[in-house]
Request: fold
Amino acid sequence: MISNIRFSGIIAVWILLGLCSTGFAQDSSDVPETRKPMEEILVVASPIIEGNEVDRYAGEKTVVTEDQIKDMNAQNIASALRMSPGVNITRYNTVGSFGGANGGAVFIRGMGSSRPGAEIKTLMDGVPMYMSVWNHPLLDMMSIDPAQSVEVYKSPQPDVFGNAFSVINIIPRKKDNDGYVSKLDVSGGSFDTFITKAEHGGKQGDVDYYVGGGLQTSQGHRENADGALKDFYGRLGYHLSDHWSTSLFTFACDNYADDPGKEGAALSTRLGRYETKAWLTSFKLENRFSVADGYLQAYNNNGKGNFLNQPTSKTGVLENQYNDFTFYGIKAKESFRLWNGGEIISGADWDTTRGRYDDDLTSGVQNNWDGHEFRILSPYMAISQLIGRKDGFYITPSAGARYYDNSDFESEWAPHAGLVMGYRSTELHTGYSRGVIYPGLDVVVLSEKVTPALRQSWRSLKAEKVDHFEVGARHRFSSLAVIDITWFHDDGKDRYVIIPAPPYPPTFANIETYRIQGLESTLTLYPTDNLSVFTGITHLDPNPSDLPYAPKTTASAGMNLRFLEAFGLNLDCQYVDGMYVDSQARRSNAVNSISIDSYFLVNGKLSYRFWTGDSGHNAEVYLAGENLTNTSYEYYPGYPMPGISAMLGMNFTL
Reply:
């Protein structure tokens, strides 16, 4: 079976590249001697990702925009990112990510498998959006309905974010130009799935706004695999002057997903339902001058993660756990350009998180946790200097550091240094950065409620750290293609685990180390104005070798084609090596023995624009299919994912 999957993957990539070669084979007389920049000639967007961006501090991020989200017919954050190089996911359901056990998660280059606790933090508009009680993401709260783009930071970047090794950040929509826009998308398909999304935005003079919302429901591909997602978002902006502006962003969601249980297992073993709710508010004051720009942001985010109808050791008795979380804080950042080619970044984040839970058994027994609060103040500064010119030879050295002052744990430093150099269409970057992530509220609740024998040992913990090294190169072949290749190496240390008895009592300790190194490359081709092709591959070499969700090889490819003026065809495929799965246990000498086989998936979307009006108005009907080869695969043993499925939809832009 594995050999067949590998063969299918090779054939699919070969077909995509073959389509590409037809564009390169066109008569040279049809190709102008001087092409315009890519942004000006493209009719179709890049498949899979918009691209990789390297900043002047040698930090790299991957960007997925609303164009890629639409082309892949992605309805959630997992679907939007699952084809991105270096990113892997797990899920049980077609709609809704079950937040308990291994039901819904995202992993970046082997990071993110720890539960409770996680190396990856999820943000919306730069604001924390995850479950603070157990300190890990809940994907249903990361709705992509308000997303203008999604940023994926695959390494520590202290000049951008703190208290995380990797970050996924959703950038909300806004209306940049004067005028109005309204969009409606309605679709339905396999497994009684129904999806509708509506949005409206406008800008007149100094005022802009954007509002929208969505509803997704599905009965699921298996019994008790149903889910529902509901969300609403809004943005209001006002330009105070030529240099100052303000904005208010708010987001709310109300979701649930059921656990279908392991195939063939008794219904009584199903883990019940996971509900997620959140209400986020973010206010920004921004400035933009010729020599400086920055922002001051205040935020508040409240939410719930309710784990309901969990089976217990007592027959007929179920457990309902109601987890409440709160984040609030202030973020400030300013970039100064006081001399030619130079830049200084100065900023600070003050973040507070707290949480609590009520744990009720249907037998009447209660075991509630009153909660705790952590505060982190993390000022940071960085400096860089551009030497040379971007249209010729240039070199940009940089250095900086972030300092962490934690209310409960020891202070830490996170230094970073980088070098970006290039000549015309070729750019090289190399850098070092330290990631710091503190224990979350999970260590407190584990000590006070789950395993009281741990007592106060959590107070002796310190932050986990990773030293990240990276070398990368990019070359742009005029407007025809761009290739990126990155080598990375992560040395992790001080991972906290529980050392079980004997001797008594069990204790928390920072004793685990790990290493992840790998190579990642992407190639995006634009052979004609109507065709774009993408391929990407990531190779990982983890130590220990049983690190979960760190497949040795993942590869993806995609194609966007516009033909006969009104038709569009989007294809994407992915190959993932067999890998260890399950959460990385917070237990000394834990061994991961659960694994899944490799798999190869093909998805596609065919669209027809049946009406085109003035000012970008249009209407489109589309047919989208997933797993077109009807591959049998799973993200976790006993939880088979759907075979071939389809959705028929229509969207309007007015």
User: Anything to note?
Assistant: The first helix runs from residue 2 to 24. The radius of gyration is 25 Å.
